[in-house]
Amino acid sequence: MKKQIQALSLSLLIYSAFVILIGWKLTWFSNQSETLFSQYGIIEMFKRLFNFLIHDASFSPLREGILLVSFGTIILASFWTIFLKFRQQLISLLILDFILSFIILADAIYFRYFEDLISSAVLLQIKQISSLGSSVGDLFSWKDFLLFADVFLFTVMLIIFFKKLLIKKNANPALRLATGLLAGAAGAWLFFYPLHDFVQKGGAYLFDKTLSSMRVYEVTGLLGFHGFDTYKYLDEYVLNKKEVSAKDRKDAKEWFDEKNNVPTIQTGYEGKAKDKNLIMVQLEAYQSFVIDKKVNGQEITPNLNKLKKESLYFNDIHHQTASGRTSDAEFAANTSLYPLATGSAYVRFPRNEYDSLPYIFKENGYDTAAFHAYKPGFWNRYIVYPNLGFNEFHSIEDFKEGEQVGWAIGDESFLTQSADKMKEMKDPFYSFLIALTSHYPYTMPAKYQTLKIDDVGDANLRNYLQSVHYVDQAVGTFVDKLKKEGLWENSVVVFYGDHDTGYMQANTPSTIYANEAGDKLGELEVKDGIPLFMHVPGVDGKEIDKAGGQVDIMPTLLHLYGLDKENYHHLGNNLLDGKEGSVVFRYGSVKTDKLYYKSSYDLKLENGTCYDIDSRQSVSVDTCKPLYDKSVEQLGISDDVIFGNLVEQWHKSKR
Ligand code: GP9
Ligand code: MN
User: Fold this and answer.
1) pTM across the whole model
2) Is the peptide bond before 509 cis (omega within 30 degrees of 0)?
3) Among 116, 292, 608, 641, which has the minimal tally of Cβ within 10 Å of its Cβ?
C-alpha cells in the first residue's frame, strides 16, 4: 500500500509541475499581449481569486474567475495522463507540453502583428494573412524559445534516465483511474463554474455571436478559446454542416438567371456615375426618424438635411440586420445578400466568395479600401475584407491618435483622416468607411452635448440625440473636407445607417419616436427605418419614396455606374427603377409600398399580422401571403448561397 501511495504521489507531483509550468506559460502570453493577468499581476490575481471564491461583494466573476478557468483548461487537456503508467505518463506530458507551448508561442507571435489569436478562420485564410503581414522573422525574439526550455530539458532527462525509471512502481490501474477522474472533475469545475456564472449573468451572447476572438479569450482563457473555436468549426463545417442539395443549388441558379434576364429599365440615371469614385459611409445606429426633425426648435441633423436636398434621398429604407449588427449591415450593403438569422456571416463564413461591391469595382480597375478606426479583429474584419475585394484595410493603428469619443477616436477625426488617406489612393477608387461614435449607449462628453434638450424627459433619448447631432456635424466637416480636397466633384458619396438604436423595442416614450400616425403600423415603420443618401455629381436632388433595404444599395449603385449588365448573384433591386418597392427583414417580416407583413416568432403565416398601409388597418393575413412567400423564398436562397459558398462554385464554372 505504501508503495502504491508513493507511486501515485510521484505521478501527481510531476503532473502538478506540468500544470504549474503551463499555467506560467499562459501568464507569459498574457504579459506579452497585455491581456488578462497582466493587468493586476499574478499575485493580485490570486488575491482576487480568493475574493471570488468567498463571493466578496466587489466580486467580478470574470476577471477573477479567469484564473480558475485557465487552470481548468490545463487540467481538462491533461487529466487523462494520470490514467497511464508512469513512463507513458511522462512521455504524454512531454508531448502535451510541446504542443501547448507551440500553440502559446504561435499565438504570441501572431498577436504581435495582428493583435488577435489564431482561430480556425485565420487558418482558413492563412494565405491572405501571410501576404499581409511583415516577414514573420521580425516578430520573433530568441527569448521566445525559452518557452521550450523545459521541454528540451525534460526530454534529455527522460532519455538519460529512461531505463532507470520506476517501471515496477506504478500505482494500480484502479487507483490511477479514480485519481485521474477526480482531477478531471476538478478541472471541469474550475472551468465551468465561473463561465456558468458569466452566462447566467447575461454573457451567453458572446458565444453565440463571437464578436471577436479576443472577446472570447477574455472569458475562456487561451486554451479555452482554442477549444471553443475548434468546437465552433466542427459544428459549422462538419457536425451540423448545412448541406445545400443539388436541387437547391439548381433552383437558386435558376432564380438568379430569371432575375437577371429581365431587361434593365431605362431610368435616366444609368451610367450617371460612370468612372467616378465611390465613397460610402456607414453610420452607426443612425435612424431615419431624426432626419429633418427638430427638437426644441433645433435641427438634429442640419448637415444631413442640407445634403438631402442635393442628393438622391431614399425615404423608406430599412435595415435588414440580425445578431451580426454592424457586420450584417456591411455585409448586406456590400454583397446584396441577406445577413444570417443567427451569428455574423463575417464570423461564420469568412472565406466565402461573393459578387461583392469591392470585388466588382476592382474588376473594373478601381482601387479599394475599407476604413474603421477600431480593432481589426472585431467582427473578423481583417480576415473578411481582403476576401471581399478590399485592397487595404485602415484600422485603429493606422489612425493618428485623436480624442477618444465613445469606442474610438471621434467620427470627426476618423472621417477627416480617412479623407486624407483617400488622397493617396489610385483613381478611381471605392472607399468604404464605418463610423462608430454614435454607438450604444450614446453618452457623449459634455462639450459635445450641444443640443439644448435638458427638458427631454428620457435620458436614453437625450444621449442618442446628442450623439447623432455630433455625428451630423462630423459629416458636415467631412463634406467640406472632400470639397476642399477636390474629391467631392468626382465622387459619389453615400451615407446610410447600419441598424436601429436598440431602444425602440423598449418603446421609449418620446415625441421624436412617436410617429405621425401614432398607431402600431407607424411604430413598425419607424422602428427599422434608416436613412440612405446618394450624392451623385451632376444629378439633381430628389426624394425617392420606395420601400427598400440595405441589400438594394449595391444594385442601385451598379445601375448608377452602368455596371449592372453582368449576371451577378444579388438579391436586392435597383431603387431607381420606378417599380413597386419591397424589403424583406431578416426575421421574416416584409414591407412593400402597400402592405406591411409583420411576422410572428414562429414564422407561421397565420400567426403574423398583415397591415394595409393606405387604410392603416390590419387585414386578413392571406392578403400578405405573396409577401410571406417572397420572404421564405428569398431568405432561403440567400442562406443557400452563403452556407454552400455557391458564388464561388458559379465563378469557377464560368472560368
Ligand atoms: C465595432 C462595431 C461595433 O467595430 O462594429 O458595432 P455593433 O456591431 O456593436 O453595432
Ligand atoms: Mn453598429
Assistant:
1) 0.85
2) no
3) 292
In this structure, which residue's CA is closest to atom 7 in ligand 1? 326
Q: Is 375 in the pocket of ligand 1 (CB under 6 A)?
A: no
Sign of CA dihedral 444, 447, 451, 453: positive
Calculate how far, in angstroms, residue 379's C-alpha sits from the geometric centre of ligand 1. 8
Nearest ligand to residue 344 Cα: 1
* Strand partners for 609: 598
- Give Cα 368 distance to the centre of its chain: 20
pLDDT digits (tens, 9 = 90+) for 55-104: 654 555 566 788 889 999 999 999 999 999 998 999 999 999 999 999 99
Beta bridge partners of 556: none
Q: How far is the CA of 281 from the centre of ligand 1 (A)?
A: 14
H or E element at residue 145: none
**CA atoms of 213 and 191, how far apart (whole Å):** 18
Residues 194, 61 contacting (CB under 8 angstroms): yes
Q: Which atom of ligand 1 is nearest to the CA of 436?
A: 2
For residue 30, give Cα distances in angstroms to 34, 367, 601: 6, 38, 43
In the chain the domains, ranked by start, together with CATH numbers, are 2-239 (no CATH), 265-579 (3.40.720.10)
DSSP state at residue 554: H
Cβ(232) – ligand 1 distance below 6 Å: no
In 60-87, which positions are buried (b, 16+ CB within 10 angstroms) versus exposed (e)?
ebbbbbbbbbbbbbbbbbbbebbbbebe
Q: Virtual CA dihedral for 313, 319, 320, 324, nearest 10 degrees?
A: 130
442 lines ligand 1 (CB under 6 A): no
Choose the residue to mutate in 115, 323, 326 for probing ligand 1, maximizing ligand atoms within 8 Å of C-beta. 326
The helix (H) or strand (E) run that includes residue 278 is strand 277-283
Q: Lowest mean pLDDT: which of 113-127, 207-221, 289-303, 377-391?
A: 113-127
Q: Phi/psi at 17 (nearest 5 deg)?
A: -60, -40
Question: What pLDDT was estimated at residue 194?
Answer: 87
Tell whether the model's pLDDT for residue 509 goes beyond 50: no
For ligand 1, say whether the CB of 379 is within 6 Å of any of its atoms. Answer: yes
| Residue 374 in contact with ligand 1 by CB distance below 6 A | yes
Q: Say if ligand 1 is within 6 A of residue 611 CB.
A: no
- Of all atoms in ligand 1, which is nearest to the CA of residue 374? 4
Contacts of 121 (CB under 8 A, 6+ apart): 347, 350, 351, 380, 383
